[in-house]
Amino acid sequence: MSGHRREGLLLAIAVGVVGVTFGVLADAAGLSLPRVIVMSALVFTGASQFAAVSVVDAGGSGPAAVGSAMLLAARNALYGPVVARLLPRRRAFRALGAHLVIDETTAMASVQADDDAAADAFWWTGVWLWTLWNLGSIGGARLGAAIGDARTWGLDAAFPAAFVALLAPHVRTAPGRVAAILGAGLAMATVPLAPAGVPLLVAALAVGPAAWWHVRSAATP
Amino acid sequence: MTWWAIGALVVGAYGCTLLGVFVLARLDARAEAATTGWVRRLPLIATLIPAALFAALIAVQTFDVDGSLRLDARAAGLAVSAVAVWRRAPFAVVVIGAMSVTAVIRWQTSG
Is residue B78 one of the residues assigned to a domain? Predict the structure, then answer.
């Protein structure tokens, strides 16, 4: 198995275990197994699924759950321009690929050396993730609370760590570093002020100053 | 959650990725032909989005606890992963190293 496929599988295993946690939480929030299955298969955006189920678990309404979940799903639109050229031209396959556009697949694709490897990494990571996320959430919903808290195993630390590795190639240029530092700063400043999901959308504003930096340094050699 | 709420979430979430892949990406491609204005900068902006969003994800996943910033065992995991990436360790070492350190610190500090 080539390097990026193996890395995609490793990431997917971690996501699968988080899927178990999601299943447990969804079960505790009163979602039936068919609903958990449909949600994981068709929404397929871990963070927004967690948000929706947490709101319901805390006694929130359906629209409130959907609203907070949508704030977290909105950033996937921003990944479109990053991965679009890797997707097949045929509309149906392109639409199928769009379903797999999430943080992890975009990240795995964006660190590859060329477009062929990037497309391969996108699809393999996407299929691994989709499969294990669904198996995990079904398992979690069936087993319920018997599994315990995934945080005991440090699983919540797996994602930031994976993203540190996936961020590294993007901060080799000065504008990339500006975008990363400003993005992290804006997100942290927004955390206490806004509901979950909003900090990541605010962080996207960091690309403005970073692009300006790029243009300015290109103009004055 | 009702089936209606789940249906709305499916349509909304998929709508976001479709919007990105079919609409935003087309704007991006058209921008390469443009010569003036901010539209010309769209491809550059697209290449900078991962840097901004991944860094923000790392920060939020490490320091956010239900809407407030907190320093806990995850920060040690983050430090380990940063050193591992800097030393060019393999991906598995980066991820499993951060998990182990976080788990051990939690285990040591609980109870």
Answer: no
